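B., you asked whether I could sanity-check this one before it goes into the benchmark set. Here's the sequence:
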Amino acid sequence: MRPPFVTFSRNVFIPLTNVCRNKCAYCGFRRDIGHPEAKLLSLAEVEDILSRGARAGCSEALFTFGERPEEVEGFKEWLLELGHETIVDYLAELCRLSLGIGLLPHSNPGILGKYELEKLKPYNASMGLMLETVGIIEAHEGCAGKIPEARIKTIENAGELKIPFTTGILVGIGETWDDRVRSIQTIRDLHEKFGHIQEVIIQNFIPKTGTKMNSKPAPGINEMKETVSMARRILPDDVAIQVSPNLIHPKELVRCGASDLGGISPETIDYINPESPWPNITELQSMVDIPLRERLPIYPAYVKKKWYSSEIAPLIRTLSDAEGFRKTYK
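And here's what the prediction gave me:
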């Protein structure tokens, strides 16, 4: 069950905005308009992060932000000041900027319509949306963006458009074991229909200070091992399982079938889990007892199948080796 090597990517994390229409009980990232930490990064701020990432040898620009922030009163004015009507239009401009600087964008914009995915596809090497759970849970109460059917529809739309895609589940947010199984089965079924799921993240809940779930315990290593093993049994062999090495030690999870450690940033923190620092590459290798191999945000199989646009093709040729992995970076 243990893979011959474990993959990772070298990225910069760009928290474009922490304004979000959802109010999940476990989220410590979201801020209301008017909160002193609420923000929307300017083009100059994003360019600075991208440039630092390029100098550090990163290949991926991970764009993450709150879902549908335009629905939050006051946010639209921020966008208009930057010359954009929608966050998707602004994101498309930033993805083009990223390509020019030499980093492949991977965007996690939340629920999107098909026309919005079509707008972003030319400028993204891959995209993502966590399914989280197909269960109806208290932590998602009142969150329009956490209706399972809506998230499934976005993943389905990405499949129809042949966008290499990342999804996954959150473990320990109030879901049942049956919810986890059904969530993984749903992802499997989507991949079997469209062939676009390159990786599935099995992410452990971490309690955040100031949230409604701050006193809820995080899942232990045995629960995570059982969940990773279940996912490996259900998912097709060509879908990687990713675990987060800054949230949980990956060694035993790799033995259960996990084969990817996600994006590791030499320049930026994990803004979703700021209390959990990334390991550096040397530390990452010490966490597992098999070799590491660096990849791009688009997995090798999709590089070989050319599931990318003409806008992205030159940079992929520059960054990828003959097998579709990252060219050796020193």
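One thing to flag: The radius of gyration is 18 Å. Otherwise nothing jumped out at me.
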